[in-house]
## 1
Amino acid sequence: MRSTDGGRTWGTPALISPEGVPAFSPSIAVTERGTVALTYYDLRFLKPGNTTTLPTAYQLATLRHGNPKLRTERRISRIFDWLQAPFAGGYFLGDYQGLVADGKGVRAVLTETHSGTPQNRTDVYTSRLPTREDRQAGDVSTEPGRR
């Protein structure tokens, strides 16, 4: 997961999500300071025997200079029930997630379900998320996230 030659070659891939936890729909961005940021949905909140809901959350993992030893992770969505998503040959949130470095951290776009309105079962959110390295440099204000 690390490059020492400006991205021409890369080292051995490393697992980012917790081992044994289904994770999907990843996005990746690299900040100006070299922090690798990844977002993904995962099912870490699914309890054994739960067959009626599919608790899902969107995670942000950062690796300072791509180093797994300097990894941080935080949940950037609420925990929502994937089974509330519209059914289109399977429960589908759409292709509405992404991540981009914006010069002051990263900006994530994600979709969550809600059960309040059957005609509008998903909402799309975005937020700027300063990385720890950007906060330590003191050149960003901490913009409150959605949650």
## 2
Amino acid sequence: MSTSTPEAPFGYDKNGRALAPYGYKADGTIKRTKGRTGRFGSLRKRGTRWNAQYSAPDGSRKSATFGSKQLADAWLAAERVKIDRGEWKSAAQLEAEREAEANACTLGQWAEEFIARLERAGRTPKTVQTYQSRINAHILPTFADAPLRSITEDDVTDWYTALDRARGNGVSRPVYMTLRAMMNDAVKAKRLTVSPV
């Protein structure tokens, strides 16, 4: 007789035990109990929407609103799993991670993401190729390894002045506008708070 391990829809802890949020069995089915269920969080119907709330490990109260009870219940279950696995993070921790990621991004890395964003936005292949050509020929040689947030207005002015002297306004102006578009897009993507261009 072979024994098979049942599938655990909420995953396993570090000791190999199946995880399940309050109100659920390890196989993912809802526990049927009489009286108080020991439910994680709370659900309230507000008009046609459902509000789900729970007390977070940092002591704050977290809430979200959904169009159905099932979605609200699923959100609570997912939040409980994050807490059980030790993966839950406070807003401050998430912001610190985003900040660290943004500080680590170089202009060269942003250039790749910028080109991908242009393609996803539906820009024509010729437009994307023009941007890519300007970036590779005139922007990356100076700024490729510079952290995006370390580039200052003075850096841009010095670069533009040197480019204008070497190549003239016919080249320097469109390249400057490309750098400006890159930096403005970085602000939209929350990689920068203010554009240096």
## 3
Amino acid sequence: MLKGQVAFNEGDEVKLTIVLPFANGDVKYVITEALIVRIFEKEDKRIATIQLTDTDDVDQQHIVRFCFERQLVNRRKEMNPFHV
């Protein structure tokens, strides 16, 4: 999600720092470059779709692990909405 004035446009290349907080308390920082593919609004929020362009194998593994953990958490919430 984007907050405030957007300083880039579709097609721009940007440098990102992605913070990945894992379930076990570890926090990994992925510093990479990306291409802004699309900027759009949804439910009064501005969202940018990005394509990572310069991410090494280790950082890719961290991103995949983070996404997998989040999917598990979301699935557990869906299956048992009364358990936090």
## 4
Amino acid sequence: MSDVFAVDLALDLSPNLPDAVLAHLRRHLEGDSTDDGSGEVDWPDFVPLLGDRGPASHIGGLLTGRLVQAPGHWSLTARQEIHAELLPELVALAEMLAFNARTDGVIGQVRFCEDEIPELLINRSGTLVKMPLREANPSSIPLGCCLVCDSTHAGCGTSYS
């Protein structure tokens, strides 16, 4: 049994990202443990969480991470495998990202590699909210009930028969 989690992040960050936050994020992305001026050289146990590239060992597909300065904001996308012992560091990074995110809403997800259902990472006014999803029970949905508007879909046009 593996103790690996699949992590996906996709969000836009403030155009006024503080230099220290930018340096910290770049350090995670570049997989570099040397001093980058962020003051983290004193953290000998620092592990870059977004620095792996190439084929994933446990979750399939590719591991990636990229930060790009776009007009009016920074865009971040990352897909990584994170070991369970690094989850507290991941939460701290996600909290920093949520605080600096440009918009509210889903900024990523975390999924234990042997599970099918992830936990969403949501930015709510600069605060990270972790929302576990659950498996839908189709037998509990009445026939004719709409999954989109949670009624008999009068007006949404969806039909489940």
